Amino acid sequence: HSFMQRRSTDDDDGGGGGGSCMTVVGLMSGTSMDGIDVACVRTDGRRVFAAATKLPPSRTYAYPQSVTDRLRAVARVGGDVRAANVEPVQLEADLTDAHAVAVLRYLEESHMSATDVDLIGFHGHTIVHRPAQRYTWQMGDGQRLADKTGIAVCYNFRVNDVEHGGQGAPLVPIYHAALLAGSEVLCKTPVAILNIGGVANLTSIWLDSANIPQLVAFDTGPGNALIDDWAMKVTGKPCDYDGCLALQGTPNKEIVKHALANEYFSRKPPKSLDRGEFLGVLEEVHGLSATDGAATLTLLTAECVAAARDRLPAPPAKWFVTGGGRRNPALMRALAAVLAPATVGPVEELGWHGDSLEAEAFALLAVRTKLHLPITFPTTTGAPEPLCGGVFCASATRPTAH
């Protein structure tokens, strides 16, 4: 894979080599709609460097309630803004401004200024993702964000891939590979990174006979989305805190079995899912108790991962879990059971930061976009060839360094 090619300057901390290393802020607004993750990364687009001066920790900033309410309304009707009675131009402006506020607050709280940052990677918020129709929409105005922050922005990372027949997701695998580069964890036996957000996706990485990293990545199925929706419905809380409901319930295996009959699971990877694809399962658990419903949906997420494992060239010996799902003990227990004898643990075991991994990834993807390096690959999105993606926006309001 071209993204892993070493250059002779790769041995320094990125500070040399003609300034090839950039300080980048990555932004992620996930399908859970709870806010904006902000992270700072030093990268040249191929490797991730620990900066000489320590980078500030990542932070999450809540959306204004009016933005969250409108995003949830749109999600409830499968991304149809008109049906949700939401004005898209206004929502995009408000959503972008919330990201600008988050960046400026992050810089202030980190004792940084806009001139300390070379670039922003702005994912935006996915409203609709339908790769089969070659359509995906991540709401967010990159030029508006660049002008409000005084920092250049790369955004719209998925559209080019989808227009060329790729799945447009997942995009994070090359960041996993960059983090694992040179690590002793990476070997001939595959290692899996499982990201459990609203939708769950996995990256399986291994070294081939020439010691070149290979990877395959795809969406496994529902992640937290159905569990969260159920918890909101039966308890009024946005998620099953500490897996409390699921741990007290008994899963309905017939419902799980029926959901696993969905044609998605027999499709060959790479493949990707829309958050709303499995909303029908919520209808099926409708008659169950609060605890049994949570246990059923938790088992479904785990069984989807087991089904995904069976589609890999070889089963991973170690699974490292990131995203909000790793905080759910019921889900981690279910994963350990279905993936045995492989081991399952959080990505923190690798020294990574599970809450900010996606935001960090968009920082790397922004640099690759600016340098015209590919961001999607045949084995990650099913793209016909390695493809560049993303749109670069210079800032009209860039302050000059003093």
Q: How would you explain this protein's 3D organization?
A:
This protein has 402 residues and is of the alpha/beta class. The protein contains twelve helices and 14 strands. Strands 1, 2, 3, 4, 5, 8 and 14 form a seven-stranded mixed β-sheet that branches. Strands 11-10-9-12-13 form a five-stranded mixed β-sheet, sandwiched between helices. α2 packs parallel to α3 (142-149), α6 (225-235) packs antiparallel against α10 (290-309) and α10 packs across α11. Mean pLDDT is 91; it is low at 5-19.
Q: Low-confidence runs (pLDDT<50, min 5 residues)?
A: 5-19
Sum up the overall morphology in one term: globular
Order of helices and strands: EEEEHHEEEHEHHEEEHHHHHEHEHE
Assembly classification: single chain
Number of strands: 14
Give the radius of gyration. 20 Å
Keywords:
402 residues; alpha/beta; 7-stranded mixed sheet; 5-stranded mixed sheet; 12 helices; globular
Describe the structure concisely for a colleague:
By secondary structure, the protein is of the alpha/beta class.
Task: Write the topology of this structure.
Layout: E1 22-28, E2 36-43, E3 48-49, E4 59-61, H1 65-76, H2 88-109, E5 119-122, E6 125-130, E7 135-139, H3 142-149, E8 153-155, H4 159-163, H5 173-180, E9 191-196, E10 199-207, E11 213-222, H6 225-235, H7 244-248, H8 253-259, H9 280-284, H10 290-309, E12 318-322, H11 329-339, E13 343-346, H12 357-370, E14 391-393
Parallel strand pairs: 1-5, 5-8, 9-12, 12-13
Antiparallel strand pairs: 1-2, 2-3, 2-4, 6-7, 8-14, 9-10, 10-11
